[in-house]
Amino acid sequence: MRNGRPLSPTGKAYALQCIHNILADAVRDGLIPTNPALEVKVPPKVRKNARYLTIQELRSLAAAAGQYEALILILGACGLRWGEAIALTPADIDFLRRRISITKNAVWVGTKVEVGSPKTWENRTVPIPEFLIPPLDKAMRGKPPSALIFTNRNGGYLKRPSTRDGWWARALKDAAIEPLTAHELRHTCASLAVRAGASVKALQAMLGHRSAAMTLDVYADLFDDELDSVAAALSALAENS
Fold first, then answer.
1. Is residue 239 exposed (0-12), middle (13-18) or buried (19+ Cβ within 10 Å)?
2. At a CB cut-off of 8 Å and minimum separation 6, what does 105 contact?
3. What is the mean pLDDT of the chain?
4. How far is Cα 121 from Cα 125, in angstroms, rounded to an integer?
5. Which band of pLDDT confidence, cut at 50, 70 and 90, is reported for residue 128?
6. CA distance to 111, 115, 166, 212, 232, per residue, from 219 (Å)
């Protein structure tokens, strides 16, 4: 239970992974003979159909977000998780190499923020599209290297926005886009990257997935065109043999 509500399949999987890791350490230290968590199964996730914005829709949403224009573009064009984006500082941005270094993840727990490693515990870098440079430079202007780039009114960490009210809801309405969560912009990033020619491995590295298998599991529908190309190539090979 969390806040009086049952855990979601994702929450259950995360809790089981934590327990599994603890018991694995106990087995390694000789405290218990086997890991009983290996026999525990969690309900499979029911995946919703992902929504993908076009590049024009993404830029319209970003423009409607005002001071958070660069944040929207980072989420939708670079694929950062919310906690990774709100933890960014100017020191993480390298305009010369056009790279963002992702080394931190800020998570709201109740009324406090816990800052730790990225979700997969591995630092990574992602490319900065050229159209993101002007708004990102504007968002960083005048801020010291260790300051947060995107903040709330008090200069603190931004909370995940609501689709019902606040700046995010207003931006969606002004851009004439059906309600979607900030996290769903990662799907848009994946879609745009694949359309630009990104491979599964490149997309995996960009999104910070544990494996290419996970990336394919989540975004198999984006690679349908590649499968069609393979089929066409095989047909051509058969005709010429």
1. exposed
2. 81, 83, 84, 87, 115, 116, 117, 118, 119
3. 86
4. 13
5. very high
6. 34, 28, 30, 10, 22
